[in-house]
Amino acid sequence: MEPKTKIAAEDGKQDLTITREFDLPVELLFRAYVEADLLEQWMGTKVLKLECKPHGGYRIETSDPQGNVIFQAHGVIHEFTPNRKITRTFEMDGAPFGVQLELLEFEALTGDTSKLRIHVVYESPGHRDQLLQMPFAYGLNMAHDTLQEIMEKLI
Amino acid sequence: MNLRRDPFQAIADPTRRAILLLVAAQSMTAGAIAANFDTARPTVSRHLQILTECDLLEQEQHGREIRYHLNPGKMKEIAEFLEPFRMMWEGRFSKLENVMKKFKNRK
Fold this sequence. Notes:
The complex is a heterodimer of chains A (155) and B (107). By secondary structure, chain A is α+β, with helices and mostly antiparallel strands. In chain A, 30% of the residues lie in helices and 41% in strands. Chain A contains three helices and eight strands. In chain A, strands 1-2-8-7-6-5-4-3 form an eight-stranded antiparallel beta sheet, covered by helices on one side. In chain A, a hairpin with a 5-residue loop joins strand 4 and strand 5. The longest helix of chain A has 30 residues. The mean pLDDT of chain A is 85. With 107 residues, chain B is an alpha+beta fold. Chain B contains six helices and three strands. In chain B, a hairpin with a 2-residue loop joins strand 2 and strand 3. The mean pLDDT of chain B is 85. Chains A and B meet through strand 1, strand 2, helix 1, helix 2 and helix 3 of A and helix 6 of B.
């Protein structure tokens, strides 16, 4: 079976493209990015601020079960076209990955299916590769936990 | 850290990528590989040395000839580089899909 999430990262470049097709109408897919309580559910993070408009900002934060903040990130929104496009920056606080530019394009495939294309531009090829290696360190555990959770619901 | 032993360093060069594509089809001698490039023979030898050090190429003795062929195991390592990142996003997106399906049904 072909993987649902595709990642294209050409060698030596400072960008990458993530594409994924969803079994959701484009309006619902877009809402998942726009409404704080929905975003919190699927990203597993707390949304401190989310202003979905040009020149708006956002801030997210994740804490461990003891309440210690383990992850903080923020950015600004440049373009916001409902059900079509979000252009924003993203930067992790206190991490050496630099700032990244994210261009999210939402596309309706049929009435019930949609496609998301995220083009991410990093400060340098080195920054990109460093971030790609990050899941090896701790992101993978997180993804596995999420996957497990989903699989458990299916059983 | 020895950068030259990193397979990603190895494929950062266009000539080396072209060499890998050449030997993917069949094992070849250094001379036959060099004949495909305008660059000087020692330059090609240098690229072959780096690719061999990185384990992307393997040498085999054929009578008096040494031929180079691709090491598919090491090539797979490069493909696997993106896999955890993809898995991370796949996990997130599956969750997004689940959350939104529930949200839709609730309405």
